[in-house]
Amino acid sequence: MKYKGKLLAGIAGLAVLATGAVAEDLTIVHGSVGRDQEVLRGQLDRFEEETGHSVTIVSMPESTSDQFGQYRLWLSAQSSDIDVYRMDVIWAPQMAQHFVDLTEPMADIIDQFVPAAVESQTVDGKLVALPLFLGAPALYYRSDLLEKHGEDVPETWQEMTDTAQKIMDAERAEGNSDMYGFVFQGAAYEGLTCNAQEWVSSYGGGRIVELDGSIGINNPKAAEALNLAASWVGGIAPEGVLNYKEEDARGVFQSGNAVFMRNWNYAYALAAGDDSPVKDTFAVTTLPDGGEGTSSAATLGGWNLGVSEYSEHKDAAIELVRYLTNYDNQKERAIVTSRPPTLMAVYEDADVAEQQEFIPLWKPVVDNALPRPSAATLRKYNEVSSTFWTAVHSTLSGDGSAEDNLARLEAELTRLRGPRW
Ligand code: GLC
Asked: Which atom, in ligand 1's list, is nearest to the CA of 245?
């Protein structure tokens, strides 16, 4: 145990702080991409300094689907090893019973949070987790290459495809043999569900499961979107995209080897960083749409902090959750990692606007982001999503047509739903 700050005396193995409170050892489990964990550690160091508690980070693999599997093991074993869990926006309905209701402890601050974010974490009136940051992806593009080749910023997926092909071919002809047109998250995991929901929805193909629980995914517009996406693999996108997660896509784009990239907000600060080869040559725009009469869709992402029902340090854990989501820490996170905040006031902060232009620029996209059907499918969401990403991954891999895979998906989802979700 390490104690910092206002340590007063030790009684029976516990450290007592000047406030009379006991210094506790907390554990937070946290996945990470980019600089997330570095910022977290800095904030935890200050928390330790201010409170005398100490906090250990348990690091998770990048994939949210892998994290979900591990969390489920800990929670079903009612493990007291973890006090605070960083949770994906989609998990609250499935994990609600394992978390402390934060309604009461956060009653004095909850009105300051983005209402939709709070709603996403509220299950049957229980506040399962407090929103830490939000996510809404962008189409990142190489403004220098578009200009060089006389191309406009694409508005539709078909335009994006054509422009990516043209620039990739021209750059390769000039000797840049590593150049690709488009990178995204094509591995078989939750990230592919996010990407594919965007393709389908922006083609007017609806949602994976509709808000009322109905299943309309087997439709010609969804098939059209997936067929176009399948044409990218091994063409404008490397074959390897079938195994790409967020950081794989960013690696290719940031090293200068892709014209376009679909990625979350965190990639902005990194691509614009001092050591980034593309720092002065990229820009962002909204994801393309399906053409006439359709509109762009950006999947709602984000992470939240929940206190385990099995924690032996619930009060200190609640204190930690309040601390990590407070104004100063959200502001720092927004500036350093370009993660959209969950406190409304941070969007209006002049320093944030000046030091991280992406945050105010992206506010309307965040506000209109498209949730995944986790509220509609409740405890079955993870299976719904894995059934969906499997059908999409097969299509991208050339294993069956979009039409056949969507027909099978519809049958599987219908079976999974049974009489109700
Ligand atoms: C991001 C999003 C999260 C999503 C994940 C998929 O981390 O914030 O909501 O599930 O990407 O890879």
From this structure: 12
29 within ligand 1 shell (Cβ under 6 A): no
CB half-sphere exposure, 302, CA atoms < 13 A:
32
Q: Is 156 found in the same domain as 45?
A: no
> In this structure, is residue 133 part of a structural domain?
no
Q: Is the CB of 190 under 6 A from ligand 1?
A: yes
Task: Please tell me if the CB atom of residue 264 comes closer than 6 angstroms to any atom of ligand 1.
Answer: yes
The best mutation among 30, 71, 88 to test binding of ligand 1, ranked by most ligand atoms within 8 Å of the C-beta, falls on 88
Measure 166 CA to ligand 1 centroid, in angstroms: 31
**Ligand 1 atom closest to Cα of residue 33:** 7
Q: Where are the alpha helices (DSSP H) in 102-156?
A: 115-120, 143-148
* Pure H helices in 149-239: 157-173, 190-202, 220-232
Provide the pLDDT for residue 22. Answer: 84
Task: Render pLDDT for 271-287 as a digit per residue (tens, 0 to 9).
Answer: 999 999 999 999 999 99
List, for residues 195-207, the tens digit of each pLDDT value: 999 999 999 999 9
Give me the CATH number covering residue 256.
Answer: 3.40.190.10
Asked if residue 204 has its Cβ within 6 Å of ligand 1, the reply is no
- What's the rounded Cα separation, in Å, for the pair 258 and 380? 36
Per-residue b/e over 68-106, b at no fewer than 16 CB within 10 Å?
beebeebbeeeeeebbbbbbbbbbbbbbbebbbbbeebb
Domain containing residue 189: 138-299+374-417
pTM of the model: 0.95
End-to-end, the C-alpha distance of the chain in Å comes to 46
Instruction: Determine what percent of the chain is predicted with pLDDT higher than 70.
Output: 96
Q: What six digits make up the tokens of 125? A: 């009136």
Q: Is residue 352 part of a domain?
A: yes
Mutate to test the pocket of ligand 1, among 190, 197, 245, 382 (most ligand atoms within 8 A of CB): 190
| pLDDT(7) > 70 | no
Protein residue with least CA distance to atom 1, ligand 1: 301
Query: Based on the domain organization, do 384 and 284 belong to the same domain?
Result: yes
Contacts for 328 with CB less than 8 Å, ≥ 6 apart = none
What number of other Cβ atoms are within 10 A of residue 59's Cβ?
9
